């Protein structure tokens, strides 16, 4: 009696090895040797694939997956093998079960970057996947579903991080614009706390000045969200706990996520009494002393992120730079008022220089600056007092003032201790009654503090610029929503516009790809519409004005509106995502290719199973197994090359050396002629049919017979010759069998001419293939010349296996004489 036990699975790897043993969960699927042929064949294809896949089979949704999917499972492998999908991933049942039920009902599904919550490595968290579920039909039923998937979690997290960075950069730009023109320190801090509080959605944002004792402090102003109290008033640092004192005095931020559990109850009570549950308090240290504080608070617990901490630190530095600059400018204005009155000694260097450039008057501050008495200064020349080097820097301006032109400039002067100070100098001509210039008033103010603040502000702005440069983020701005357009150098590059060329909104719309013009225009109109105030978040293509290059751009922005609802400007960022788009398109193409080939292979296998006939089970099994294994070998080779194709020599060796027992009876020769992915499987199946018949009826059916296989490239394609020697006599068959029709149909798949010759020594077959190109649109549309699926008027798959029983090739009707035609 013939055994029905199947041979081992035609696959290698960890999962395949486990399936070959008893060390896996069989309750739902049973042992491998008892599997139905379709399940077995689908699993072999799946195990040989390099892309993450799993198969769900039967009502229990039993799960078989390949080695590539193990990375998704993590520690759930190998226990997941053979178990119900819901036992492996119970946490996603509510989300995924309707999708799987649809697939078992015959409806395929595709999802891109779908977020799911998975429990992996004893932890739960969000994950993102792009995947498809495809039904696997078997006759009238659908016993299984194939899922092809790729995890996109890192890309999703990266996009979220990039969005947060863009949002932060836009906020800092708005903050700079909003505070630049403010005239007082209090106005700067009021604006800063409001904008920061709203940006971070906190309950309270406040700023405080420290006392000289480094303990007492006064919260001079705050912003509170609706329902939150104001905390303006006097406090002691010690009342807020040891951690607050230690961190803030040494210049480190105080970060508390939940004061009820992170600090002592008595210390937490101080926070709770003013409605604070969690806090970031950022110190401002100058000259080694704690000078001021800025803080944000939530009413309840909140886990602060590194981004939130960095934002508070940056805003604290920027705001105090603004405050110091405003304070310095106010000091300068007050000094100028004192100079105009000259009623008493002022904190300015005031002097009067006559027409001969000699000092006739100096005030007390001037004397102190140079450390000289009036007698040591009056009557001396400017060059003598300042020294040759300093005098050379002011001589031209001094002569111009003595000629009647008021002069105002900034320079540096040296203190007696040798230190350099920044000064602002005004030379005011003094005229006699007749109008002639008789001398110059020199008014000099120390602006070191102001310039230091401005340099700090410039450094902060430089950090912003560097951040946008390193993040490769471009900035754009439109006044009034449709007025003057500003593009930085990076955005100009995205539109192919020279750096020195003026731009307008017309240039923006002219640079858009025609297919993206309408959607982008509507998105911008919604962002600048006072009634909608939508977030401008679009992806579009540009066509470079100077280079014609097509680039993908991700743009984000928002309109800014005044109290009357008028759009004052629309501002935002733009990022070049051309490389990302190319990767996404390549990924999608690969997924469609894998899905298409899996479906196509399954359809062929099902047709072979349904239409193959034989006089007994063993003959049926042998014929069916041979053809399926030939397909599987070609599929395996394609999977290893990532569907890029192979060579004739590779296909010949893979097929013949695996199916012919005595390799010494094969004479193989030829160059490594390349094959496209579409040519490998038809050639493999042709060789299988020829080898099968040679073993049954031809040269390989006798002891001394040999087969000579030669191949070579031709100017227009390639050719392959099959010649048998030493076999039984052969003759042209009287009729065409199934195998012959199969071989000829496969040859047509190759666009090949095939010629059979019957000689006394054995069968000869010549295959000549003319290469033809497959266009990229055809490839993308899935119209590839796969086996049993041609672009031309080829026979339908079903016609190859008609109801007739005259099947010859592949081992059918063993009593029939050798028939290949």
UniProtKB/TrEMBL annotation:
Residues 407-459, 536-589 form the PAC domain. The keyword Phosphoprotein applies. InterPro entries: GAF (IPR003018), GAF-like_dom_sf (IPR029016), HATPase_C_sf (IPR036890), PAC (IPR001610), PAS (IPR000014), PAS-assoc_C (IPR000700), PAS-like_dom_sf (IPR035965), PAS_4 (IPR013656). Residues 335-405, 460-518 form the PAS domain. Transmembrane segments: none annotated. Keywords: ATP-binding, Chromophore, Flavoprotein, FMN, Kinase, Nucleotide-binding, Phosphoprotein, Photoreceptor protein, Receptor, Repeat, Sensory transduction, Transferase, Virulence. Signal peptide: none annotated. The keyword Nuclease does not apply. Residues 271-318 form the Phytochrome chromophore attachment site domain. It holds the Pfam family PAS_3. It is an enzyme of class 2 (transferase). Its EC number is 2.7.13.3. It catalyses: ATP + protein L-histidine = ADP + protein N-phospho-L-histidine. This is histidine kinase. It comes from Caulobacter rhizosphaerae.
């Amino acid at each position: 009696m013939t055994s029905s036990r199947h041979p081992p699975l035609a696959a290698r790897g960890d999962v395949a090895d486990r399936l070959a043993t008893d060390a896996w969960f069989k309750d739902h699927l049973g042992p491998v040797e008892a599997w139905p042929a379709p399940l077995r064949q689908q699993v072999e294809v799946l195990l040989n694939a390099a892309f993450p896949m799993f198969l769900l089979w039967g009502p229990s949704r039993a799960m078989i997956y390949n080695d590539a999917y193990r990375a998704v499972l993590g520690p759930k492998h190998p226990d997941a093998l053979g178990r119900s999908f819901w036992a492996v991933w119970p946490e996603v049942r509510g989300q995924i079960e309707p999708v799987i039920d649809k697939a078992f009902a015959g409806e395929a599904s595709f999802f891109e970057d779908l977020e799911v919550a998975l429990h992996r490595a004893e932890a739960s968290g969000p994950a993102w996947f792009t995947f498809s579920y495809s039904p696997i039909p078997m006759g009238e039923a659908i016993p299984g579903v194939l899922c092809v998937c790729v995890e996109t979690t890192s890309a999703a997290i990266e996009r979220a991080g990039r969005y947060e960075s863009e949002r932060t950069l836009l906020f800092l730009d708005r903050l700079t614009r909003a505070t630049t023109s403010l005239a007082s320190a209090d106005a700067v801090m009021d604006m800063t706390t409001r904008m920061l509080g709203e940006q971070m959605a906190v309950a309270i944002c406040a700023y405080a000045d420290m006392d000289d004792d480094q303990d007492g402090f006064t919260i001079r102003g705050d912003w509170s969200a609706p329902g939150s109290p104001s905390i303006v008033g006097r406090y002691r640092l010690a009342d807020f706990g040891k951690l607050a004192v230690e961190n803030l005095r040494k210049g480190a931020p105080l970060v508390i996520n939940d004061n009820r559990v992170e600090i002592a109850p008595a210390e937490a009570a101080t926070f709770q009494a003013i409605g604070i549950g969690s806090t970031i308090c950022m110190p401002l240290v100058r000259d080694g002393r704690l000078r001021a504080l800025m803080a944000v608070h939530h009413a309840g617990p909140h886990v602060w992120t590194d981004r939130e901490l960095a934002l508070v630190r940056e805003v604290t530095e920027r705001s105090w730079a603004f405050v110091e600059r405003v304070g310095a400018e106010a000091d300068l204005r007050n000094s100028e008022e004192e100079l105009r009155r000259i009623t008493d000694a002022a904190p300015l260097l005031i002097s009067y220089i006559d027409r001969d450039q000699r000092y006739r008057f100096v005030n007390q501050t001037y004397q102190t600056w140079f450390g000289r008495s009036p007698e040591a200064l009056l009557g001396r020349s400017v060059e003598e007092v300042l020294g040759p080097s300093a005098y050379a820097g002011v001589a031209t301006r001094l002569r111009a003032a003595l000629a009647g032109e008021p002069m105002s400039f900034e320079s540096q002067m040296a203190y007696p201790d040798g230190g350099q100070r920044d000064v602002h100098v005004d030379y005011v001509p003094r005229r006699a009654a007749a109008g002639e210039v008789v001398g110059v008033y020199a008014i000099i103010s120390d602006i070191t503090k102001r310039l230091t603040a401005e340099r700090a502000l410039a450094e902060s702005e430089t950090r912003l610029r560097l951040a946008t440069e390193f993040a490769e983020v471009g900035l754009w701005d439109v006044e009034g929503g449709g007025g003057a357009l500003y593009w930085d150098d990076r955005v100009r590059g995205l539109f192919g516009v020279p750096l020195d060329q003026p731009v307008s909104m017309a240039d923006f719309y002219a640079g858009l790809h025609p297919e993206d013009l309408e959607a982008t225009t509507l998105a911008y109109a919604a962002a600048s519409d006072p009634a909608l105030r939508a977030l401008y978040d679009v992806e579009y293509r540009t066509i470079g004005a100077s280079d014609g290059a097509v680039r993908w751009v991700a743009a984000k922005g928002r309109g800014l509106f005044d109290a009357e609802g008028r759009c004052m400007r629309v501002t935002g960022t733009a990022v070049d995502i051309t490389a990302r788009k190319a990767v996404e398109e390549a990924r999608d193409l690969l997924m469609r290719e894998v899905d298409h080939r899996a479906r196509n292979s399954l359809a062929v296998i099902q047709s072979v199973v349904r239409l193959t006939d034989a006089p007994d089970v063993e003959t049926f099994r042998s014929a069916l197994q041979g053809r399926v294994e030939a397909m599987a070998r070609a599929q395996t080779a394609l999977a290893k090359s990532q569907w890029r194709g192979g060579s004739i020599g590779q296909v010949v060796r893979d097929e013949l050396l695996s199916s012919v027992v005595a390799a010494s009876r094969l004479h193989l020769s030829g160059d490594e002629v390349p094959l496209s992915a579409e040519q490998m499987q038809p050639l493999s199946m042709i060789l299988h049919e020829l080898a099968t018949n040679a073993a049954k009826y031809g040269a390989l059916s006798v002891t001394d017979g040999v087969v000579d296989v030669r191949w070579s490239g031709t100017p227009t394609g390639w050719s392959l010759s099959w010649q048998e020697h030493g076999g039984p006599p052969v003759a042209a068959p009287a009729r065409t069998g199934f195998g012959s029709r199969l071989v000829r149909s496969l040859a047509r798949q190759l666009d090949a001419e095939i010629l059979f010759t019957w000689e006394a020594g054995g069968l000869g077959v010549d295959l000549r293939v003319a290469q033809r190109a497959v266009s990229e649109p055809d490839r993308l549309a899935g119209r590839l010349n796969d086996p049993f699926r041609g672009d031309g008027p080829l026979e339908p798959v079903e016609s190859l296996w008609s109801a007739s029983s005259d099947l010859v090739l592949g081992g059918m009707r063993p009593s029939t004489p050798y028939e290949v035609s």
